[in-house]
Amino acid sequence: MSDADRERWDSRHAVASPAVGPPDALRGRTDLLPAGGRALDVACGRGAVAVWLAAHGFAVDAVDVSPVGLAAGQELAAAEGVAVRWRLHDLDAGLPAGGPYDVVVCQRFRDPAHYPELAARLAPGGLLVVTVLSEVDAGPGPFRAPAGELRAAFDGLEELHHVERAGEASLVARAPLTGPGLSAPG
Ligand SMILES: C[S@@+](CC[C@H](N)C(=O)[O-])C[C@H]1O[C@@H](n2cnc3c(N)ncnc32)[C@H](O)[C@@H]1O
């Protein structure tokens, strides 16, 4: 990532303040979460989801390129009395080493090149929770997923929930008990 892009994210994280809560795709469906274990929040921003996962008993690794976002996450975790392992990392280099994870969340950060890695980091039976900007109801855009992208990318997982509307697409899916499931790159 360029310095200019990182600074742009830092400025966004200096003002925005999301409330601690589950990933959007799990709102009303938190029963899908495993009872506990390890969780990874990819591009965690200010850490609202990472802190929520930690408060629900997960050992959380939270990754982002923005020091400002991660500092906000640290403050949030301290205020909530939970521990999260914050990892400053540029995802342009791929996901950092780690896992397997019982939950992998990637919310509003889209890079299809990462899809195989997201699935590969899941423990057997682990839960994947992805939300991206979508072209559905919004039209084409440089950061938007074409219709069906998430389903096609993760078709080796058991789909539990999928929605594409109003410019967003979400998928909640479970890895097979025998290992990560992912279609071969096309
Ligand atoms: C739209 S925000 C989403 C934040 C959070 N997941 C949420 O749902 O609130 C996108 C996040 O991706 C991070 N990001 C963008 N490019 C990145 C990169 N190359 N490596 C790591 N993080 C990146 C930004 O710093 C930002 O926190």
How would you describe what is shown here?
The protein is built from five helices and seven strands, in the order αβαβαββαβαββ. It is α/β, with parallel strands linked by helices and 186 residues long. It has a seven-stranded mixed β-sheet with strand order 3-2-1-4-5-7-6. Helix 4 links the parallel strand 4 and strand 5. Helix 1 packs parallel to helix 3 and helix 2 (48-55) runs parallel beside helix 3 (67-80). The longest helix is centred in the middle third of the chain and has 14 residues, at 67-80. It is globular, with a radius of gyration of 16 Å. It starts with a helix and ends in a 12-residue tail after the last strand. The mean pLDDT is 92. It binds S-adenosylmethionine. The site of S-adenosylmethionine has 16 residues, from loops.
Entry keywords:
binds S-adenosylmethionine, 7-stranded mixed β-sheet, 186 residues, Rossmann fold
Tally the helices: what do you get? 5
Q: Give the oligomer, counting copies of the same chain as homo and different chains as hetero.
A: single chain
The CATH superfamily is Vaccinia Virus protein VP39
The hetero molecules present are: S-adenosylmethionine
Order of helices and strands: HEHEHEEHEHEE
Which stretches are low in confidence, meaning pLDDT under 50 for 5 or more residues running? none
How large, in whole angstroms, is the Cα Rg?
A: 16 Å
CATH topology: Rossmann fold
What number of structural domains do the residues give? Answer: 1
Per CATH, which architecture? Answer: 3-Layer(aba) Sandwich
Into which percentage range does the β-strand content fall?
25-35%
Helix content: 10-25%
Distance between the termini: 26 Å
- Average pLDDT metric: 92
Number of strands: 7
Class from helix and strand fractions: alpha/beta
Please summarize the sheet with the most strands. 7 strands, mixed
Strand order of the largest sheet: 3-2-1-4-5-7-6
